Amino acid sequence: MKDLAWGARRIPIHEAKMLLEWVLGVESLIIADEPTHAQRRRYRLAVKARSQGFPLHHITGECWFRGERLTVGPGVFIPRPETEMLVEYAFEETGIHTAVDLCTGSGAIARCLALSGLKVDAVELSARALRYAQENLHDTSVRLVRGDALEFEGHYDMVVSNPPYVVERVAGDVLFDPEMALYGGGEDGMVFPRGLVTRARALLGPAGVLLMEHAESQADNLVDFAFSTGFSHATTLTDLAGRPRFLRAVV
């Protein structure tokens, strides 16, 4: 379509294609009808917004996470593809019946865990993020709780989290994510991650497992901290690119 060619001159062609499919309400342009005048105008506005730096998922109001369509937008952290690997590691654990997703944000992790058959609680402090989580979890059995992840109480077989851990402000779409979901605090970005490891130790029963995403630079320090907090085993798991991105600690 001419509209796609117009968009591809301003943004990457795969994004132009995604935006046009979104505007037309189809999963593939192969089955799309010719755009109406209103759709053409909406598409041009969407491409303009993207070319000005607005996140693709804020424009469409949705994203995909492990095959699940999620509602997202300003005020909630947009799930990244690497976090899907965290869920894969969670599925590899055995003897797990209950889990809590701390700092659930959009509810992406909690949704996947619940759909696998686990009894799941999800905790989020931000009122804006909670609205998205409610939308994404309304058709699951997840118990959604508004609260501080570092003060939450309970007993679980597994704690899973993608907490704030970014060290400093960086360029790119990440700037559109809420700061409270990004920055871990301190010079190393590890104030919050350390707090979460401590809280996980209190939440987990015997042989309980913590799986937590972190920055590459934080891997060794978090393993050492997990041991000092009382975990009997701690190691680093890698993402698909082989980078050390996840802490696995066992009580």
Task: Label this structure with key terms.
251 residues; 2 domains; alpha/beta; 37% helix; two-stranded antiparallel sheet; Rossmann fold; seven-stranded mixed beta sheet
Care to give the gist of this entry?
With 251 residues, the chain is an alpha/beta fold.
Structural features, described:
It comes from Scrofimicrobium canadense. It catalyses: L-glutaminyl-[peptide chain release factor] + S-adenosyl-L-methionine = N(5)-methyl-L-glutaminyl-[peptide chain release factor] + S-adenosyl-L-homocysteine + H(+). Keywords: Methyltransferase, S-adenosyl-L-methionine, Transferase. Helix 8 links the parallel strand 6 and strand 7. Helix content is 37%, strand content 21%. The chain has 251 residues and is α/β, with parallel strands linked by helices. The chain folds into two domains: 51 residues, no CATH class; 178 residues, Rossmann fold, CATH 3.40.50. The model has no long low-confidence stretch (mean pLDDT 92).
Largest sheet: 7 strands, mixed
- Beta-strand fraction estimate: 15-25%
What do we call the CATH topology of the largest domain? Rossmann fold
In N-to-C order, the SSE pattern is HHHHEEHEHEHEEHEHEE
CATH homology group of the largest domain: Vaccinia Virus protein VP39
Radius of gyration (CA) equals: 20 Å
Give the helix level as a range of percent.
25-40%
Mean pLDDT: 92
Q: Runs with pLDDT <50, length 5+?
A: none
State the strand order across the main sheet.
5-4-3-6-7-9-8
